[in-house]
Amino acid sequence: MYQSVEDTINMVKEKFPDQHIASVFENCYRDTIEKTIKKEPDGSSFVITGDIPAMWLRDSTCQVRPYLMLTRDDEELADVIEGVIRRQFYCINRDPYANAFNETDNGNCYMHDQTDMKPILWERKYELDSICFPIQLSWLFWKNSSRISHFDEQWKSAIDKIMTVLETEQYHESRSDYRFQRPEHPFPDTLSRDGKGALVKEGIGLVWSGFRPSDDACTYGYLIPSNMLLVVVMGYLAEIADTIYQDKALSDRAAKLSEKVRSAIEKEGVINYYGDRFYAYEVDGFGQYLLMDDSNLPSLLAAPYIGYCSADDPLYSATQKAILSERNPYFYSGKSLTGIGSPHTPAGFVWDISLAMQGLVTSDREEKMRRINEMLHNDGGTGYMHESINCNDSSDYTRPWFSWANAMYCELVLDYLGYGINRTNE
Question: What CATH topology corresponds to 40-329?
Fold first, then answer.
C-alpha cells in the first residue's frame, strides 16, 4: 500500500468522530488501489470496474480521481495513475469508438455483436463520454502532479483519432460508418435502423452518441450531458495543445469545437416545459427531446461538477429542480432512499453515484453530510457502495462490487473535508 493512501485514511479517521464514516471510507479507498489496478510490464495500468474483468475508459477515470491529490508528493502512486492514462490512450489508438477493453487481445467480449469487433475489445458501444474522460484525467493529472510525461506521441496520436471521431459524429447521418447491432436483444442493448441509431438532424453543432454512460442506447442521438463534458475537455485540450505541444492548429481546432458545441447546447438542448426552461437529457435536432436524468456520469445533475456551469446558474438550478422531482421518471422516493436511478437498473432503485453527486454539487456542508450518511446507512451492511439500491429496502442492491461507486463515496468524503478533486495544487 502507498504511504500517501495510508496517511489519507488516517487523516479521515482523525477528522470524523463517527468512525463508521471513516471505516467505510477506508474500505472504499483501499478497494480501487489494491483490488482493481494491475501494473503491466510496459508501464501502463489496467483497471477493472470490479465484478467485470474489463476496463472502461469512463469508469477507470472516475475510479482514480480520489487519488489525484496525492500524486505530487507520491511518485510511486503517480506512476500508477500515469500508467492508467497510458493504457487509456493505447486503447483509444486501437479503437476510438469502443467503450471497454480487455487486458490483452484475448477475444473475450460481453457479446458477439455486429460491429467492427477486435480481440482487444470487450464491447464496442460508442459513447461520447468515453473519449472525453481520458482527456479530463490527463489534464487533472497534469495540474495535480505537475507531470507532463504522459503527453507523448501515443497521446497525440489518440487525440488525432478522437478529433476525427468528434467531427465525423457531428454529421452522423452522412459521414459516419459506425454501426452496432446486438441480434435478438431489445432496445436499449442495440441500435435501430440496422445499427445506425435513431435519426438525428445533423450539422447543428452537437456530437452524436450511440450509447449513454450507462451503456444503454440513446433514445435521441444528441446526449446533452456528454456534449457538456465535451465542451469542457476541449478547453483542456486547447490548453494542453498550446502549453505542451505548442500546436496552435490543434488548440484552435479544439477551442472552435468547444465553442460550437456550447452554442448548440444552449440553442438545441434547452426546452420549454409548461412555462419552465431547463436542459433536456437528449434531443434529436428535430424538436423531440427526453426529459429525464440518469445516475451515470456525465449527467445533467453533474453539470457543475464537470465544469460546464456554476451550481448557482439559473438554468442549471431549474434543471436540478426538475430532475430531482417526479418530472424525472427515474427519480424515486421510498422508505430508505430518495434520489435518481436509471433505466439500466430496476424501477425504484437509487444509485450511490447520484447520491454522491448531490453532495458534490452543493456548497452546503450539512447537505454533503446528509448524502454521506444516506450512502453509509444504505450499504446493505457490507461496508461498501453499490450500483443501485432498492429505495424501500437497503438490503436489496445490484452489483456488490462496483469500484466506481466506492470511489464516489471517497470523493464526497474528501470534498466535505475540503479536498475537492477538481482543485489543483497550482
Answer: Glycosyltransferase (1.50.10)
SS3 of residue 149 by DSSP: coil
Torsions phi, psi for 113 (to 5 deg): -80, 160
Query: What is the C-alpha to C-alpha distance for residues 385 and 402, in angstroms, rounded to an integer?
Result: 7
Amino acid (one-letter) located at 364: D
Nearest residue to 123 (alpha-carbon basis) of 107, 145, 136, 147: 107
What's the sign of the alpha-carbon dihedral 172, 176, 178, 181? positive
**Which amino acid makes up residue 21?**
I
Of 386, 279, 293, 385, the closest CA to residue 340 belongs to: 293
Distance CA 210, CA 272 (A): 25
Half-sphere exposure of 40 (CA within 13 A, CB side): 18
Q: What are phi and psi of 238, to 5 degrees?
A: -60, -40
Kindly report, residue by residue over 77-129, the tens digit of the pLDDT.
999 999 999 999 999 999 999 999 999 999 999 999 999 999 999 999 999 99
Furthest CA-CA distance within the chain: 60
In the predicted model, what is the mean pLDDT of residues 34-53? 95
Phi and psi angles of residue 134, each rounded to the nearest 5 degrees, phi first? -60, -30
Between CA 285 and CA 264 the distance in angstroms is 10
- Residue the block writes with cell 490527463: 138
Reading the block at residue 217, the C-alpha cell is 442506447
Percent of the chain with pLDDT over 70: 99
The domain segmentation of the chain, as residue ranges, is 40-329
Q: How far is Cα 77 from Cα 45, in angstroms, rounded to an integer?
A: 11
| Separation in Å, CA 352 to CA 57, 63, 72, 102, 240 | 20, 14, 29, 26, 33
- 64 vs 45, 339, 410, CA distance in Å? 11, 25, 11
**pTM recorded for the entire structure:** 0.97
